[in-house]
Amino acid sequence: MSKKQTKRDIQAEQTYHKLLDMSLELVKRHGYHKVTISQICDACGCAKGTFYNYFDSKTDILYRLAIQLNEKLSTMFSYDETKSAKELYLQYVYSYMELVKEDGYAFSKNYLQMLISESMSGEKVGLNIQKEYLFYLLDRGRNSGEFTKNIDNKEFFNLWQATVLGVLAMWAIEDNNYDVTKEGCNALSHIIKTMI
């Protein structure tokens, strides 16, 4: 039997999400490097000490936002038996790129910079959630005979991850002149062809 949440537990969870959501909003508006912890706290109506109860640093916010993005994405995974593995993959890619677009250009650009400068591991930002789903799709496609090439799951995931980072880099370079959903779907749809 799980322990009932106290009023204090609920309030702490609400404060955490308020800080996280406001951070994302401010990063989208002003860019990661222009937002200070003081601005986040002022916008949330809390003290800096409260911020540090939940986060180690401003960089920690980006880590947590990336994890949140991947957890949100995991709710979009489909295990529909009536669709082919390729159809599910393309649906997943579209959902992923739309979610990236929704989180905004500024967040994606700063996330990409952080990946490079902070040597952030995939496990730390929840990429294992995506990896597991892609592995499921690849195994399902192989088992049904839809995917005939025997490319290792890890090798495919590395190619997928490199392509996603390339798309994000192009979006960062091209600014808002780049249709991240269209270009991301196009690039990522090509790599599934390596399995057919």
TrEMBL record:
<dbReference type="InterPro" id="IPR050624">
    <property type="entry name" value="HTH-type_Tx_Regulator"/>
</dbReference>
<protein>
    <submittedName>
        <fullName>Transcriptional regulator, TetR family</fullName>
    </submittedName>
</protein>
<keyword id="KW-0238">DNA-binding</keyword>
<feature type="DNA-binding region" description="H-T-H motif">
    <location>
        <begin position="36"/>
        <end position="55"/>
    </location>
</feature>
<dbReference type="InterPro" id="IPR001647">
    <property type="entry name" value="HTH_TetR"/>
</dbReference>
<dbReference type="InterPro" id="IPR009057">
    <property type="entry name" value="Homeodomain-like_sf"/>
</dbReference>
<feature type="domain" description="HTH tetR-type">
    <location>
        <begin position="13"/>
        <end position="73"/>
    </location>
</feature>
<dbReference type="GO" id="GO:0003677">
    <property type="term" value="F:DNA binding"/>
</dbReference>
<dbReference type="InterPro" id="IPR036271">
    <property type="entry name" value="Tet_transcr_reg_TetR-rel_C_sf"/>
</dbReference>
<dbReference type="Pfam" id="PF00440">
    <property type="entry name" value="TetR_N"/>
</dbReference>
